[in-house]
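pinging the channel bc i need a second pair of eyes. not urgent but kinda urgent?? the chain im working w is below, pasted from the shared doc
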Amino acid sequence: MTYGIVFLVIISMVLFIIAAKTCYVKAPPNVAYIISGLTKNPRILIGIGGFKIPQH
């Protein structure tokens, strides 16, 4: 029982890390990333990092 819980925690942590690495983008100072989403106003990243939801 304890090994199952530990296994589930480790798997969930690995999946969380993979999701965080694929969703994080960093814009260089001379490039603007425009991230559109569900809201009316798009986010513009210039020289900073941010999270985006991957699209198919």
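so The first strand starts at residue 24 and ends at 26. and The chain has a mean pLDDT of 87. — does that match what u expected or am i reading it wrong
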